[in-house]
Write a structure and sequence with these properties.
- With about 240 residues, the protein is α/β, with parallel strands linked by helices.
- About 45% of the residues lie in helices and about 15% in strands.
- It contains ten helices and eight strands.
- The chain has an eight-stranded parallel beta barrel with strand order 1-2-3-4-5-6-7-8, surrounded by eight helices.
- The two termini are about 20 Å apart.
């Protein structure tokens, strides 16, 4: 049997970008019920509630991978270690940071047993930078079109094109991509994403759980052996 024809399951990551730990725990419980795989302690939560928010989420969900979305750019090593000590399975660094900062983050990740996510947000050439951070030791890369970019240019999201380019050159690291709706999540899945990240409006509001369940279901159904042979998410 050619195992390359059987893609691994796609991972769905909930981006918990609220401002308090209590609200974050409520959102996380809802997201788990809806079927998400990984939980992200979002940048707003870390900035408003502090790094101990990572411990709160990790303690409440010991069976889930927890990402600390710290978006580090300098002094990276010590912050990666601090997040790992509080239960983070993955910590993000901005790929636009210097090579020295990426290397320091890699050292921190290796020392603390966590994975390093390089977020390609605002990189002038995301495909080239993805290859560079992979060579420096990053474990995962994320394609990320930010809220400010989306507000300024709602039609300017080119992350799916960049994902396709990465897959066409045989890029081997797991690739995550932020989706703003079910259609985008499905396209990411069929284009070759390993992780689909989802946040607002699927995590808040009176019918968030129903919408998130539908998002998870449709993104997973989009993944088939005929769509993207040999691709898939990390175990």
């Amino acid at each position: 049997m050619d195992t390359r024809s059987v893609p691994r399951p796609i991972m769905v990551q909930a981006c918990i970008d609220v401002q308090s730990v209590d609200e974050a725990l409520d959102v996380a419980h809802m997201a788990v019920r809806a079927g998400v795989d990984w939980l992200e302690v979002g940048t707003p939560l870390i900035l408003f509630a502090g790094i101990e928010a990572v411990r709160s989420i990790a303690t409440a969900f010991p069976d889930r991978k927890i990402m600390a979305d710290m978006k580090l750019v300098d002094g990276t090593g010590k912050y990666v270690v601090a997040a790992a000590q509080r239960g983070a399975s993955m910590v993000s660094v901005c790929a636009v940071a210097s090579d020295a900062s990426i290397r320091a983050a890699v050292v921190g990740a290796r020392a603390s047993g966590t994975q390093l996510v390089a977020d390609l947000y605002a990189c002038p050439d995301p495909v080239r930078r993805a290859k560079e951070v992979a060579a420096l030791g990053a474990d995962i890369v994320y394609l990320h079109y930010g809220a400010d970019q989306l507000a300024a240019d709602p039609d300017g999201d080119h992350t799916l094109t960049q994902l396709g380019q990465l897959r066409s050159i045989g890029f081997e690291l797991p690739v995550g991509i932020v989706a703003f709706n079910s259609e985008g999540g499905c396209l990411a899945s069929t284009t070759g994403a390993d992780i689909v990240l989802v946040g607002h409006p699927y995590l808040t509001g009176p019918d968030a759980e129903t919408r998130l369940k539908d998002f998870v279901r449709t993104v997973r159904q989009a993944r088939s052996a005929d769509d993207i042979p040999g691709l898939g998410g990390p175990a």
